[in-house]
Write a structure and sequence with these properties.
Largest sheet: 8 strands, mixed, barrel
Shape: globular
Strand order of the largest sheet: 1-4-3-2-6-7-8-5
CATH topology: 2,3-Dihydroxybiphenyl 1,2-Dioxygenase, domain 1
Structural class: alpha/beta
Order of helices and strands: EHEEEHEHEEEHE
Number of strands: 9
Distance between the termini: 30 Å
CATH class: Alpha Beta
Helix content: 10-25%
Strand content: 35-45%
Length: 175
């Protein structure tokens, strides 16, 4: 466990084609089902500046580890467009930790030289992405344990645990 961030709970991937990426995990890993939110709007801060993103997000579990695939649809500069600028069509963009006090972990990370570069402004709870100047492409999402988020996370994990391969890509959240 990290003394600053705690345990990694999620692997976040960027994709140029979210459907192809979900099919890859279903067909090659046998992982699913995937729960996808398509074409959602999200207000965020990128380097302190407000940005409006159009994106799709898919989530599935492999054991206790959640996988998230993000596809940004508009050209607004963001953490995601920067990550895709020099990388393949599907790649790891961040790992996430889920904590009770985002602000406290953010402060602790700043004391170790990490910088907050991306922050959610909409939706339940709060998430902040931090990077370190020594390795600026290593990104950690610090996400809170908002009750709604926790319910979604647990339900996806439980469904994946007993998944029989049917209906591998499902629109919406399971709650």
């Amino acid at each position: 466990m990290s003394s600053v961030f705690g345990n990694v709970r999620q692997i976040g991937l960027m994709s140029r084609d979210i459907d192809r990426s979900m099919r890859y995990f279903v067909d090659r890993w046998g992982m699913g089902p995937w729960f996808v939110l398509r074409n959602i709007s999200n207000s965020m801060l990128y380097h302190g500046n407000p940005v409006e993103l159009q994106m799709s997000i898919a989530m599935a579990n492999c054991g206790d580890m959640q996988f998230e695939i993000v596809m940004q649809h508009n050209d607004t500069q963001s953490l995601y467009t920067d990550a895709l600028a020099h990388t393949p069509d599907l790649h790891v963009q961040h790992v996430a930790v889920w904590v009770d006090d985002v602000a406290a972990v953010e402060r602790a990370s700043h004391e170790k030289g990490w910088r907050s570069i991306f922050e959610t402004k909409s939706g339940p709870g709060r998430s902040v992405f931090v990077t370190h100047p020594d390795e600026p492409m290593v990104c950690i999402e610090v996400s809170d344990c908002d009750p709604f988020k926790e319910k979604v996370r647990e339900t996806i994990r439980e469904i994946a645990e007993n998944w029989d391969g049917a209906d591998p890509i499902r629109d919406g959240l399971p709650v």
